[in-house]
Amino acid sequence: MASYKLTYFDFRGRAEVARLIFAHAGKKFEDVRISFEKWPAIKPSTPFGQLPVLEVDGQMIGQSGAIDKFLAREFGLYGKTNMESCQIDQIVCLINDYLSAVIKAMYEKDEAKKAELTKNLKEEQIPKYLGFFENLLKKNGSGYFVGRDVTLADINVYNVTWSIVKDAPAALDSYPLLKEHHQKVGSIPQIKAYVDARKPTDI
Fold it and tell me: Where is the GST N-terminal domain (predicted)?
C-alpha cells in the first residue's frame, strides 16, 4: 500500500482539493501543515520552491494541479474514458480561470483598484462562472459534472462553491442544479465528516 504525505500551509488554499480527495477515498495520508516561519528552511527541498508538495512512497510531486490529477487517477475519480477525463480537465481549467480573478482581487494593493476588482468579482465574475457550472450540470443530466459518479470535477467545484456559500449563503439560490450538487457532495459522509472537523481558515 502506497504512503502519502501532503505538505502545505495551515489553511485550505491550493491543497484543499487534494485533502478532499483523500477524505472521499477514505485514504490515510500524512497532512503536514507548516508555518510561514518554517517555510524558508523547507523551500529548498521542494521541487520548484512552492507548496503544496505530495510525497508518494518518498517520491515528490509539485504543482497542485498535477497532485490533484494524480490522486484522482489513483482513486478512480478521473473518468472512465479519455473523453470524460478531458471533460474533467475542461472544468478544472475553468475553475483555474475563476480563481485567477479571485486572487487578483484578493492581493491587489491599490485600495481603489482592489474595490473595483472586488465589485467586478461579485457582480460579474462569480455569476458568470456559477452560470457555466449550472449549464454543465444541466447538459450532463446526471446530477454530476461528468458521467454518473463523483469525479475530480465535482470535488473541485464543491471546493469553490463551499467558499462562495461561506461568505454569501444565498449565492446559489438562482442556480438550482448547482445548489443541489453542492448539497449532495457536501452530504457524502466522508466529505461531510472532514469538512465539519477541519480548522476554520479565511482561505
Answer: 2-79
